Automatic annotation (TrEMBL):
Keywords: GTP-binding, Lipoprotein, Magnesium, Metal-binding, Nucleotide-binding, Palmitate, Prenylation. Its cofactor is Mg(2+). The keyword Transport does not apply. The gene is LOC108631212. Residues 136-182 form the SOCS box domain. Signal peptide: none annotated. GO terms for molecular function: GTP binding; GTPase activity; metal ion binding. This is Ras-related protein Rab-40C isoform X2.
Length: 244
């Protein structure tokens, strides 16, 4: 099947966001379909299988398609099937470096364990809202948190690559890099963009369209055992999920 469609709702910063998910096949003969769906997307997942080096090598091709037909759209690189890490063929560090080089956020996930599923969808949602100028509306009544201020201060004084050299926990460095890439994307593609009216904003800021391409598609992420809206995580660590 060339595409699979699913809708889901996530809770993002206390507000509900409806996601329209289009999972496109990673097979070459469906390139035309992928191009068509990419044009209307507000966010794109590039998904590969960590146990299949070939699927990771193919990301280059899909990234070029996306950049040609949907330039500037926020992207997240997703390494799927983390529960099979003992069969890993793609190193986490290699994928992380590739994502940073191509201005993408990066997650390794396990639909079986419901690990990093909600986090990856939430991150792409924030990036999409940020790029479309909806950040101020989304957080209009909020004072900047200490975390937000700290991110701004650090990102203003270093590069995405320099963040790796900071003496910080890996989870914090990952968040900082994602924050830096989102900010850069907004400045590059949306610096002079304005929205016509608050009514127009209201009609769009609650609905986002995401497209997934790659060997292991978006449908497997969206159909994880736990709901994406669920704040609980059934797999709290990489070694706590076992397969019988």
């Amino acid at each position: 099947m060339a595409t699979a469609y699913k809708t889901t709702t996530i809770l993002l910063d206390g507000k509900r966001v409806k996601l329209q998910l289009w999972d496109t096949s990673g097979q070459g003969r469906f390139c035309t379909i992928i191009r068509s769906y990419s044009r209307g997307a507000q966010g794109i997942f590039l998904v590969y299988d960590i146990t299949n080096k070939w699927s990771f090598d193919g990301i280059d091709r899909w990234l070029k398609e996306v950049e040609e037909h949907a330039p500037g759209v926020p992207k997240v690189l997703v390494g799927n099937r983390l529960h099979l890490a003992f069969k890993r063929q793609v190193g986490e560090r290699d994928a992380e470096t590739y994502a940073a080089k191509n201005h993408m956020a990066f997650f390794e996930v396990s639909p079986l364990c419901d690990f990093n599923i909600r986090e990856s969808f939430s991150e792409l949602s924030r990036m999409a809202l940020h790029r479309n100028g909806m950040e101020r509306l989304w957080r209009s009544n909020k004072v900047l948190s200490l975390q937000e201020l700290a991110c701004r201060a650090i990102v203003a004084r270093t590069t995405v690559y320099g963040i790796d050299q900071l003496p910080l926990p890996k989870s914090i460095k990952s968040h900082l890099k994602s924050y830096a890439m989102t900010t850069t994307s907004q400045l590059r593609y949306n610096g002079n963009r304005s929205l016509s009216s608050s009514k127009s904003l209201s009609s769009h800021h609650r609905k986002l369209r995401f497209v997934g391409v790659g060997h292991n598609g978006l449908a497997t992420l969206a159909s994880s055992p736990g709901s994406i809206t669920d704040t609980r995580t059934s797999c709290v660590g990489r070694n706590s999920c076992t397969i019988s």
